[in-house]
UniProtKB/TrEMBL annotation:
Domain Glycosyltransferase 2-like: 10-175
An example molecular function term from Gene Ontology annotations: transferase activity
Keywords per UniProt: Transferase
Cross-referenced InterPro entries: Glyco_trans_2-like (IPR001173), Nucleotide-diphossugar_trans (IPR029044)
Protein name: Glycosyltransferase family 2 protein
Record's keyword annotation contains Oxidoreductase: no
Length: 339
């Protein structure tokens, strides 16, 4: 038998404490409508159960391979998968998320239509831990109001304005290697944002409007941990600011995005201070949030916390609305809220 040609798609999956979800992730890849793929799963923590799960699939499907290593962090797991991959296009796929059956076929058509394209992204369905699809897709949940136009190259201004490709995009191997993939180079940046900032100036990136992936909204998301949320948002802010755009339009988009990040962080601080009965701190944080974005919601929170804190505490649904809304926003800013 001759040597098998490399596949078109290499799915790069790092797995750590996702034993309950990994089978569904693998099944979604196996269900692709075209067979031209491989799946490299990195057991990023030496879990016997993860190794056993992958081993079951690999025993009957040579396209599925296992790499084992001590936990080297999320980016270290993805880079280990990339080092073992042989495909033409690299696709990061978290071990608790999924792709829809037509993912590879649709993305391949986009590459075939325009050979100079370096990466193709898509939208995603959001679903909960019961498996039920949520009505609002990924991009709409992050306040991207217009559908992506696949005929137009992604610009830095688009990226800094919030149209960050959903992380399960397909990137040509050559482009991935040229920009270093998910290697952060020792910088405290968010890898799923930094890679696009590195690529967007020199490479043609397109985003399809179709929902070709499934993004899990986990009940144990880090959005419930205030310290992790603040650290995550700070990392995002550093990642966007790192772009240092010279173009005035891109700079304006960056300024607006950074104000939005700070707005949500400050609203969350107001909510937490309010729940801790620190009304002065809550009012100040709400005022600072209003200074970043002069929204009706921020103004209402400023007024309520400043003037009627006692009444607000007695209205349980209002308190839940403040808490829930801020947690949801913090948890969905980018695709990788739970690695």
């Amino acid at each position: 038998m001759g040597t098998q040609p490399p596949p078109a798609f290499s799915f790069l999956t790092t797995a750590y404490k996702t034993e309950d979800y990994l089978r569904d992730t693998i099944d979604s890849v196996v269900a692709q409508t075209i067979p031209d793929w491989e799946l490299v799963v990195v057991d990023n923590g030496m879990s016997d159960e993860i190794a056993a799960i992958v081993g079951e699939y690999a025993a009957s499907d040579r396209r599925i391979r296992l790499v084992r290593q001590e936990n080297k962090g999320y980016d270290g797991g993805v880079m280990a998968a990339a080092a073992a991959a042989t495909g033409r296009y690299f696709v990061v796929l978290d071990s608790d998320d999924q792709v829809l059956p037509g993912y590879c076929e649709t993305i391949q058509r986009a590459f075939d239509a325009e050979p100079d394209i370096a990466a193709v992204g898509c939208d995603a369905v959001r679903f909960d831990d019961t498996g039920a699809d949520l009505p609002v897709g990924y991009y709409r949940s992050t306040n991207v109001k217009q559908k992506p136009d696949p005929t137009k190259r992604l610009r830095l201004a688009d990226l800094l304005g919030g149209l960050v490709p959903y992380y399960t995009a397909a990137v040509r191997r050559e482009a991935w290697e040229a920009v270093g993939g998910y290697d952060r180079g020792g910088q405290e940046l968010h890898e799923s944002v930094a890679i696009w900032i590195r690529m967007v100036r020199d490479y043609d990136i397109r985003v399809l409007p179709q929902r070709l992936a499934r993004f899990r909204i986990r009940s144990d998301s880090m959005s419930r941990d205030p310290a992790k949320v603040e650290a995550f948002m700070a990392e995002l802010e550093r990642s966007f600011a790192w772009a240092a755009p010279e173009d005035p339009e891109a700079q304006a988009a960056l300024d607006k995005t950074l104000r939005t990040f700070r707005y949500h962080v400050l609203l969350r601080r107001a909510q937490l201070a309010f729940l801790d009965r620190d009304d002065k701190a809550a009012a100040q944080a709400a005022k600072d949030a209003f200074g970043q974005r002069k929204t009706v919601r921020a103004a209402a929170i400023v007024a309520a916390v400043s003037l009627f804190p006692g009444a607000l505490r007695r209205v349980h649904p209002v308190k839940q609305e403040i808490s829930g809304r801020v947690a949801r926003v913090a948890g969905r800013v980018v695709s990788a809220v739970q690695r």
